[in-house]
Amino acid sequence: MKAIFQTSIKIFPLIIFFTQFWKERKMVGAICPSSSFLARKMLRSIDFKRAKVIVELGAGTGVITKHLLTQMNNDAIIIVFEVNPHFFKDLENEIKDHRVILIKDDAEFIIRHMREAGVTYVDYIISSLPLSNFTDNLSKSIIQSSYNLLRDKGEYIQFQYSLNSKSILKSVFDRVYLSFTFFNVPPAYVYTCVKENYDPIYYNLIR
Length: 207
Known about the structure:
Layout: H1 2-23, H2 36-43, E1 53-57, H3 63-71, E2 77-81, H4 85-94, E3 100-103, H5 110-116, E4 122-127, H6 136-149, E5 150-160, H7 166-172, E6 175-181, E7 188-194, E8 204-205
Parallel strand pairs: 1-2, 1-4, 2-3, 4-5
Antiparallel strand pairs: 5-7, 6-7, 6-8
């Protein structure tokens, strides 16, 4: 009975996530939450010793948010955008951390919210937005705004399930690096996009 109960706890969030995907397919770009493997791959280049301000776009169920919080300094902050009302409510209920600022709004308004929060520049932007579901103009607007907010050598880290966003990312960022993980549903590409120069030792440069 205990094993059945524990299994149901794990399955229930998947059912909720799939339900939200079915209702909001343009805004929820996956049928399952991100895996821990994907989260670790997305965060591997972050220098948590120097990171003071991190922005997360499209937190979903908070898988990546929680990974960030385990590594962030106590004086760092993470500003989390989530527009889905169900996911946002769950984030409010589950994440009780003084370093987290939750914003229920579209990522296209990122600059306005940063100004309202008194933030001029950010160190890293982590995005799970389904760019392939957006218009080119909306994707370009979000990516350009993110670029403008990053400090020198800051990174915009984006996962996608295809290479469709490659050209838009390369048109904005000075350097774009690519990695891939099979250990996610579906398997995912991770773009690490750097503002100005950066050491490519850990990445395969997209040519």
